[in-house]
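Need tokens for this chain, all 373 residues.
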Amino acid sequence: MRVILTGGGTGGHIYPALAIADKIKEREPDSEILYIGNEMGIEKEIVPAAGYEFRMVPARWLERRKNKLDYFCQLGLTGAVTCGGTAKALSIMRKFRPDAVIGTGGFVCVPVVLAGKMYGARTFIHEQNAFPGAANRLLSKYADRIFLGFSEGGEYFGCPEKLVYTGNPVRKDFLGITREEARKLLNIPEDSFTVFSFGGSMGSETINSIAVRIIKEVNGKEGWNVIAGTGSAHYDEIVEELKSSGIETADNIDIRPYIRDMHVCMNGADVVIGRAGALSVAETTICGRAAVFVPYPEATGNHQYFNAKAIAEAGGAILAEEKDLDVDEVAERIKALKDNREELEAMSRASLSCSPKGATDKIYEEIKETLQK
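Here are the structure tokens for all 373 residues:
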């Protein structure tokens, strides 16, 4: 099988694409895979590091403007860039000769999937969220199949015959390591209560405020460990805030600008604090970790709230909306879990029960079946 994958801008689009790529290579080791991204996205760093060939094409988002003139100017600029990206992607495809083109979201998918349709390859898109992104809604008419991370997302696509509920793909790394192995890699004692916080590649002031509150209280305390992924934009200010508070972080505190070993940190933690993007929720639940989800309030269609609500109602997470957030209260609830292992284990089991099972296998099988028709 010869496959082109595309998806960019955030890890939430990139890592599902890599999970699909890994599954294709697992099932068909002789497959040829090429990833097409955009120079403005973090995919240009993540994909080559994962071992896949990477090419770039021009692509651009569409800015929403209230002023009609500004909007039409933006529309024209985005259209021109998209045309250029489509032409370049088509040129790549004529040399690579893909059987399938798979998009997982982000504006770079538009020129690549359009080029795939023009080339004559079978085209697929995967929508991770309950409320689809603009790129996938646009591309749905050109796709042979639309894979859904949440079944609720199907109501926004006007082509029910194309819809396949698969769940969200999670990289096999998350399933290939035990809690004990993860803790050895992280140098964390087996019996230490470990909190892992992260707010994505850009970070989150809200998530960081919870982490800082906990760090100030447990720094240097036996039986506690904290791993805090601050986001590169917030790392220096968090370090400075702790220093200005007179805190010299001890060995039980690990503050990082970016989390590159997410599967290790997730599996090594007792409690995860994070946003409720589809990928984060899938990774947290596949590891069976109790969570505190703080949905990003500006997410399209408020989809992060509904992602988090589903896990919270099952008993696997605490849902803390940003508009009502009390940092001290969240910190106290996390501390209470340390002293109530029975509740912690119940949350872990509930989290695992919500996890996506076999998503990459389902996607592979649908692609294979479509190619054989």
